[in-house]
Please model this.
Amino acid sequence: MTMSMTAFARAETVSGGVALSVEIRSVNGRNFDLSLRLPRELSGLEEWIRKAISKKASRGRVEASLALEDVRGETDRLEIDAPRARAVHRACLELKALLGLEDDITLDLILKTDLILKNGHVIRPAEPEIDMDAFEKDARACVERALADFAAMRRTEGECVRRDFLERLEGVESRMEAIGRESAAMLPHYRKRLERRVSSLAGGLVEIDPGRICQEAAFLADKSDISEEITRIQSHIEQFREILNAEGASGRKLNFLVQELGREINTIASKTGSLEASRTAVEVKSELEKIREQVQNVE
Model:
């Protein structure tokens, strides 16, 4: 089955008054590269999430993020950061001693000092209280839903790419048949071309040996023979189709076959003596380039 490396999925859930959102996205990549961001409350799920994602994707750059939001609306719930409060108080005392001041260190001074500092406050909104056993169960289910949608999108995109491949391969085959017919018809052309050249050079003073002309024409046709290249191209196309219908990652195999197809058509273009066959070979190259670009998106 052809799988695309490009996909996006999002799933959400609410558990115990806390909303969880899961986003998974992936783009093309030569290898598997996973970037995972999750809140510290769910750090215990990191290994499980990584394994779950790696079962759905084997290539590409995957980014997954989990975010929490307290949706209980309890905006008046506050908590004290005791270690920070003691640190601010201690800093005020040290500054008072350093400057030799007699002023008292009041709560108002501590709070004002805290406000001008970064990275948190002495008094802050309380962290959501989460029943982690229940929440982790719901979080796992949410991640699994996102992964199911993620995999479904990769399959859908992959199927579109597969159909495009098959259509373009049919076009390549059709053009290769035309090149084969044009190549097979070149022997009489080589003979006539030799006759004209010899006649032109001899100026009618030398009798032309028809048998020798036929031999030379056959020699030229043999040098320009592309039957082996056509046979290999057909073999590569058949392998390409088989891989498209096989299970597992196929991108690297398809990329290799596209390169081989390109080499064969380049050889044909350099060997053929037919202008029409050369033009058709250029069309084949164009189709192969489009296939090559699409292959970069296949897992």
Summary: The CA atoms of residues 6 and 142 lie 21 Å apart. The mean pLDDT is 84.
